[in-house]
Amino acid sequence: MTFDRTYRRGDTGPVVTEINVKLGVLGLLTGGDVVADPSPVEFDAATDQAVRTFQQQRGITVDGIVGPKTYQALEEARWRLGDRILAYVPARLMAGDDVAALQRRLLDLGFDCGRVDGLFGAETEHALRDFQRNVGIVPDGTCGPATFKALHLLTRTVVGGRPQAMRESEAINRAGPTLTGKLVIVDPGHGGSDSGVAGHGLDEAGIVYDLASRVEGRLAATGSTAFLTRGPDGDIDDVDRASFANAAGADLFISLHVDAHANPEAAGCATYYYGNDRLGHHSEVGESFAELVQKEVCARTDLTDCRTHPKTWDLLRRTRMPTVQIEVGYVTNRGDAARLTDPAFRDVVAEAIVAAVQRLYLPPGEDSGTGLLRIPALRA
Ligand SMILES: [Zn+2]
Hints:
Elements: H1 14-25, H2 32-36, H3 45-58, H4 68-77, H5 97-108, H6 122-135, H7 145-159, H8 169-174, E1 183-188, E2 198-199, E3 202-203, H9 204-221, E4 225-228, H10 238-248, E5 252-259, E6 269-276, E7 281-282, H11 284-300, E8 305-311, H12 314-318, E9 323-330, H13 334-341, H14 343-360
Parallel strand pairs: 1-4, 1-5, 5-9, 6-8
Antiparallel strand pairs: 2-3, 6-7, 6-9
Helix pairs in contact: 9-14, 11-14
Bound molecules: zinc ion.
């Protein structure tokens, strides 16, 4: 509706009745007689006082007069999260306390929707899709019953302090620099009957298992818990690896691979995270983590920087925690193969990866810069 006049003490009529009902619902006016009595109610001294209290609460000029601003605020204040389905409507943004509640919960859970402004804009939709993808419901950007339920369950979990629910950046920042209690899945790719790529006497499954063991030892030194997805000869597909991590309630997933190419000149390190620009799918923290891993590995080694890239591979898509897949060099390249053969090089890569994990959990102001963190292994 358009609201083009003001209402003040002494006025009557249906809009005044509506204003009284709204104030009653908010607990600012004893609403019993208002609801029971359908006849128009006067804008009396009690209404005036309730309007002033409301205006003070909402940061509106306190004058006891209901004009367009105060009326709009009353309209927004009546919505509770779950009352209606929320979606991004570019032509006319949905507004209300339910939108603000959604934004607060998304931020609490680490999904960056920008500021809490009670307006369902593009950023909120983006954060909501990211949340939906992370909890395994259809990422349609619409806040309906399945999303309300997931928000409710997860919010309770976070209040309870269980680390596995604190998935993304805000939660990570609040958790502080300690990795104690974090569960990190370290995934040596391939294995068993699938030995991965091969070249220069190296096989992928063997290299990445050794690398995973070195990462695991350093993670233990930081106080976090690390699980490997397979043993030295284990054979497991990517869907099962993701299910394992989801069932374990892991905080992070690191998949280790090496690459191969028909062109022996192809060389370097690349890191992948979940995303698809065309579909608008994107893991914010996955990307941040990938950037950290890529920077640390390239700063500490002389591997060519093949950058980070969004992909929709099963492992990245099905894991519900931030996940990266690192391709550490090409076994088909003479220089990279020589590096990968050297245990000291694998130690440097392992340290780089764990430094990236540590930096992901550091508050922005306390980050130490690329290449500086030193993490000793508890066991090599
Ligand atoms: Zn591989």
